[in-house]
Design a protein that fits this description.
Number of helices: 8
Largest sheet: none
Number of domains: 2
Oligomer: single chain
Number of strands: 0
Radius of gyration: 17 Å
Low-confidence stretches: 68-90
Distance between the termini: 24 Å
Strand content: under 5%
């Protein structure tokens, strides 16, 4: 398997996880989860390309690319609105998180493929590449949702319903955890 093929598989799995992370109903926790997913993705891609990785250089790279992505923060804070906020904010955050993770992955792969490392990037250059890849990432996420069948939003809504059934005493904690594990495995 080529480095690019292996890296593309890593990006795809992390985009799916980031979409799920974007659905976490607690503002800012979703943002932190997606950042952690992106750092893990960079670490795995660095292994594929034989590039030295440290958590601090990974954080610096992600920060340089995504900065204070206001759209992601806005979607996160929408979740604070009772009821409809978590659904609208969750769906928006899932798409944005997936597209951002795709963009980070693409920039990292292209940078590593040309012999770059996490400590020798030119911020303006990688930021410009990120912005372009982010736009492509929106389409990638949409295509991925169609390909995967169940959207992350559908799975999140099912999880919410299962949580309500557990609270009503219809499901035991064990039954809830079993179903939750099954659903999250589909993301």
């Amino acid at each position: 398997m080529s480095q690019r093929t292996e890296a593309d598989a890593i990006i795809k799995s992390h985009v799916i996880w980031a979409m799920g992370g974007g659905l976490i109903p607690i503002p800012l926790v979703d943002f932190a989860a997606v950042t952690a997913i992106q750092l893990e993705m960079i670490q795995q891609i660095a292994q594929v390309y034989g590039v030295n990785y440290t958590r601090s250089t990974g954080k610096t790279f992600v920060s340089a690319l995504t900065g204070t992505t206001l759209a992601r923060l806005g979607a996160s804070f929408i979740k604070a609105i009772p009821g409809v906020g978590s659904v609208i904010g969750g769906a928006s955050m899932a798409i944005t998180s997936g597209a951002s993770t795709y963009a980070v992955g693409q920039v990292v792969v292209n940078h590593f493929a040309t012999g770059g490392s996490l400590s020798d990037f030119v911020e303006e250059k990688v930021k410009s590449a990120y912005d372009s890849a982010f736009e492509k990432g929106k389409g990638y996420v949409s295509d991925l949702e169609k390909e995967e069948g169940d959207t992350a939003a559908d799975i999140y809504q099912t999880l919410e319903k299962l949580g309500q059934l557990k609270e009503q005493g219809v499901l035991t904690e064990e039954e809830f955890q079993t179903k939750k594990t099954e659903l999250l495995a589909r993301i």
